[in-house]
């Protein structure tokens, strides 16, 4: 990516910001009577160059998220090779024609959201003999421009993934509407997860991860608070 990053953190700033986010997660977990270790931080590295990602890895971070398969392919094979134990999450939409690349690179695919993709994933997992963990993305705000299954479709869609395609589904993920109070979306996602019997809840970003922890998030996806602001053209 050639996007400019206006607020590129100064050297050593990434480890400090990372520590601050981890501390806020721990405080939020304790306030909710939860084990801090039950909340994992996905450090979101879209638009972040490999050299800056290395700073986070050196500071001990192992779990990362990217929203584009192509960008991830340019950065992560080399980083994974150099640093064993990386857990890479796909948090952006997955096109069926990118399934092979995604399955080869990602350890968790958070954006399963339609039958065609479920079928393509099932075929590729079988072919490649791999088993990335799969989360279903739920469009909790029912926003027409956003991907994800609607709340009402979630139970039948998870059943379809399991029964028709033989996929095991480990979690649900959501991106609440930007202009709305996220709490009701987090609560809805947690309720749906309990209904379909999955344990992982991926919710909460830089602006609201502490609240997501209060509602049961097991993964929070945080970019800006660690790596600084991204170029506005990026999304
Ligand atoms: C970019 C992104 C994030 C991180 O957002 P920040 O506000 O920078 O923390 C989280 N989830 C998804 C799906 C994203 O695309």
Report on the structure:
Helix 4 (99-105) packs across helix 5 and helix 6 runs parallel beside helix 7 (183-196). Strand 4 (108-112), helix 5 (115-128) and strand 5 form a beta-alpha-beta unit. It is globular and about 50 Å long. It has 9 helices and 8 strands. The protein has helices at residues 13-31, 50-58, 69-82, 99-105, 115-128, 151-163, 183-196, 209-214, 224-227, and strands at residues 40-44, 63-66, 87-90, 108-112, 133-138, 169-174, 200-202, 219-222. Strands 7-6-5-4-3-2-1-8 form an 8-stranded parallel sheet. The protein is 43% helix and 16% strand. It is an alpha/beta fold and 235 residues long. Residues 44, 46, 67, 91-92, 175, 205-206, 221-225 line the site of pyridoxal-5'-phosphate.
**Which segments are poorly predicted (pLDDT under 50) over 5 or more consecutive residues?**
none
Rounded radius of gyration (Å): 17 Å
Distance between the termini: 13 Å
- Largest sheet, described in full? 8 strands, parallel
Structural class: alpha/beta
Which ions, cofactors or small ligands are bound in this entry?
pyridoxal-5'-phosphate
